[in-house]
Amino acid sequence: MPVIFLTIYYLFAIVSIINRIVDIEAPVTKLAEQVAVQMLEARRSERNYFLLHDPVYIQESQQAIAKIKELVGQIQDLDPSQQGASQDLLNSVEEFEQRTAGAMLLMKGPGGTAAQRIQQAVAGYEKDLNEVLRRSRRMENAQLVQELQNQVQTFDTELTKSFEQENQALGQITSEIRTSSQHVLDVASQIETESWQRVERDHQKARSLARRAEWVLSIVSAITFFVSVWISFVLPRMVVKPLVSLREAVDHATAGNYPIKLELRGEGEIIDLAQSIQNLINRAR
User: Fold this and answer.
1) Domain 2-111+167-219 of CATH type 1.20.120.1730
2) Are 173 and 99 in contact (CB under 8 A)?
3) How far, in Å, CA of 82 to CA of 75, rounded?
4) Does this model's pTM top 0.85?
């Protein structure tokens, strides 16, 4: 019975550790890895949109962000101990989503992109040239050339300013987006590392428990064996020998040999029975 109970105890302990690894820690590690992959996908879509201005990349980025939120929800359900890290992850994802949406709105708005600002500058330049040509009849050639040079210089300044404004605005927004996405990657990597460390600790704990079970079961089995052997020698002395003595006494009494003296030692029903029979034989004599 001790061997059976100890075997059941260690079996359930090891199975519990294995279930925790299989059902919680390994899936959390995999989900954290998928979060990092989806975050990189969202960053790739965001960069492609800034380069190509294709709305398809907006949809891809939104799908990747939605997938990240779903994965984080699964992590929270599997491992409540990661609640703080998961919430930090969600906050960073929402921050990335908001900043990306702001950048996209900036590029979608009137005059948001360099191409749109160039078109505005060209329209203004064309309007100014038409005005200069309209007044050219009253101007001298030198004055007209000077006026045209001024218009060209103004147009060049407007173009330069447009590129500088876009580079400055997008540079700041891109830096903020990169910071948010990097924080998401860092938190996901932290969750993955912690889950993997727990997997390794539980694996070592299971191996240690298995080795301890082998030693404990071996020792208990040996003790049980020796106790059983000891009982097999002691029990006859305590039970069988009094019964043999009692049988011999009854045989002597049957043969007419009444002087009977039983050596009774100890306690228990056998001793009581032997004492009663001795009293009966003495009375019969």
Assistant:
1) yes
2) yes
3) 7
4) no
